[in-house]
Known about the structure:
The protein is α/β, with parallel strands linked by helices. It has three domains: 4-125 and 254-418, Rossmann fold (3-Layer(aba) Sandwich); 129-247, Domain 2, N(10)-formyltetrahydrofolate synthetase; 433-515, Formyltetrahydrofolate synthetase, domain 3, CATH 3.10.410. The strands form six sheets. Strands 1, 2, 3, 4, 5, 6, 14, 15, 16, 17, 18 and 19 form a twelve-stranded mixed beta sheet that branches. Strands 7-12-13 form a three-stranded antiparallel beta sheet, covered by helices on one side. The longest helix is centred in the first third of the chain and has 21 residues, at 129-149. The model has no long low-confidence stretch (mean pLDDT 94).
Amino acid sequence: MKTDIEIAHEAKIEDIYCVAKKIGINEDEVIPWGGFKAKIHPKIFDRIKNNKNGKLILVTTINPTPRGEGKTTMTIGLAQALAKLGKKTMLCIREPSLGPAMGMKGGATGGGYSQVVPMEDINLHFTGDMHAITSAHNLLASLLDNHINYGDEFHIDPRYIVWPRVLDISDRALRKVVIGLGGPNNGVPHEEEFAITPASEIMAILCLAQDLKDLKERLGKIIVAYTYDNKPVYATDLKAVGAMAVLLKDAIKPNLVQTIEGVPAFVHGGPFANIAHGTNSLIATKMALKLADYVVTEAGFGSELGAEKFFNIVCRTGDLHPDAVVMLVSIRALKRHGDGSVEKGLSNLEKHLENISLYYVPVIVAINHFIDDTDEEIEIVEKFCNLKNIPVAVADIWSQGGEGGIELAGKLISLIHNNPSKFKFLYDPNLAVKEKIELIAKKIYGAQRVIYTVAAEQDIKLCQDLGLDKLPICIAKTQYSLSDDSKRLGRPKGFKITVREIKFSAGAGFLVPMTGKITTMPGLPKKPISEDIDIDEKGNITGLY
């Protein structure tokens, strides 16, 4: 059996100008990044702004296994299948992070015959967006420490510096560190945290900004620290916004690539869904909707994380109206939630389907076919869906590409045209902070109650004092369970959600309640994937999935 990278190497990749032309992008709107990658100039909006929006399709999943369920692969395969049916289709997915690529999950460019290419470039440094975000973020951190070093005009309390540093590598040793050691010439000593770049507020800002002007306004609202009299210090106070925006001037432009079958794809932005909002950039999605009849996008992890945040944060910010949801399931995940039984594991799927129903968007179940799935196991899922009057299709897009998703694509088109979406938000952002958190925890997770630590209670009072309490909620939670305990599988009941603290992403425009044991800096597994990655003297890469 060929590896993903071997399949990618055999693909006949089209010149990026040809890919752009397919979807209606003019040559002067393409900024080439080599022969097979490009940035798209924002001026395109002036030409296409009056185009009718295409149909927006969101791919989500149940609570996944540690290796994932192939959601990105399914998203890519579905876009290829729609294109095979003659539909003008675009794909919108996130950029991979080096943390998972070198750690447990591997790359994030799909798999088999449903990949975006060139896969090595996209999985590694791509067009430099991750580095630009990392640089802009750490510039702000260094300007903050520099300000303190030169007299501290704002009287910043070093115990309440809330702007971490970031790195796009999983490194648990950097979660808590002390900087500024070595005497007065090396700055003022204080405790510091590191987060992974996809957890940076700047990543969230980039993915939610509507244009460069909006980007700068959001950057200026970033809270970096608090003074001794509990007043916030913003990025704009440190005169950091202009330089940060310059570092992000190219990163804000969507990246155009293609699938193995030549379907145009925007791969842009990469916030994690368990600690951020988990979807690609709003600019890319809105651009795609003006260019294509069908736009397929994904939200990280399950419906209680990525989809919930996509609906309540991204759609609210960008005035998006999703037309359908594809709920991805795999037999192996159902077995995990059912302690080896597919039938018992259906309780997890049932809850995720109930979650989607709360938004009044039509849904179809996609069974991602793996080689060891049996007909009997698949039939159990199909019968369950039929009893609930929910369309279902088996898709073998890993081995067959778009052809393996034809049934899914056909049923999806029928669903969209016969069941118009009546999309609505889960909550009003003007509700109290606790009300919003508890609506998500009880209705989406199925929690019985929410517990707040003393620190979280203080955070709620502070956000009210700062006028941030009307912002949407972006809960940081484990992806492996509906609860905040990764070991509670299936459909747990009677559990509580514990909010440890609430981080303010004032620039991005949401509050981040931290629950359970979630951390913004992941660690590497005992045997990271990086151990198998290599390059030969001819430049051929192996081991990158």
